[in-house]
Amino acid sequence: MIEKVTLQMSENGKFRTENGTGCESLNPKALLLYAAAQCSAQTALMIMQKERITPKRFEISYSGELSAEEVKSESVYSSFHVVYNVECGSEDDQAKASRAIDLTHEKYCGMVRMLRMIAPVSHEVAVVSTEPAKA
């Protein structure tokens, strides 16, 4: 079974679940993914802000493959996958956002490091620019 949590950045720079549910509605396995998504998102956003960029849109999804077909207390994660989707205003910001995400995932996010001790953590990054292409 795959458990998944998706967070989206709001106008005030906070990350909320895509359906607006709070932590109290998540099971403990999903809470682990939620915590990892919050850590990764906030770390990446902090690095981007140090580079003086604010993404127009930022969404992050964490999914985990569980060892059972349904969530049980004894089920454990066998792998994790992270998808970063970011929309920037320019090509320069696009490159900085990509670098911030790579640094987050490979070096600075403590939750990613902890999850790697449990199971493999793969990721994919999609950073797009809304600036018209230069001729």
Write the CATH architecture name: 2-Layer Sandwich
Please provide the count of β strands: 5
Number of self-contained structural domains: 1
- Radius of gyration equals 15 Å
Beta-strand content = 25-35%
Query: What does the average pLDDT come to?
Result: 91
Q: Please give the largest β-sheet.
A: 5 strands, mixed
The count of helical stretches stands at 3
Q: Between the first and last Cα atoms, what is the distance in angstroms?
A: 47 Å
CATH superfamily: K homology (KH) domain
Q: Which runs of at least 5 residues are low in confidence (pLDDT < 50)?
A: none
User: How are the strands of the biggest sheet laid out side by side?
Assistant: 2-1-3-4-5
Structure commentary:
The protein has helices at 28-50, 91-108, 110-118; strands at residues 2-9, 15-17, 57-66, 77-88, 121-129. It has 135 residues and is α+β, with helices and mostly antiparallel strands. It has a single domain (2-129), classed as GMP Synthetase, Chain A, domain 3 (2-Layer Sandwich). It has a five-stranded mixed beta sheet. Helix 1 (28-50) crosses helix 2 (91-108) and helix 1 (28-50) runs antiparallel to helix 3 (110-118).
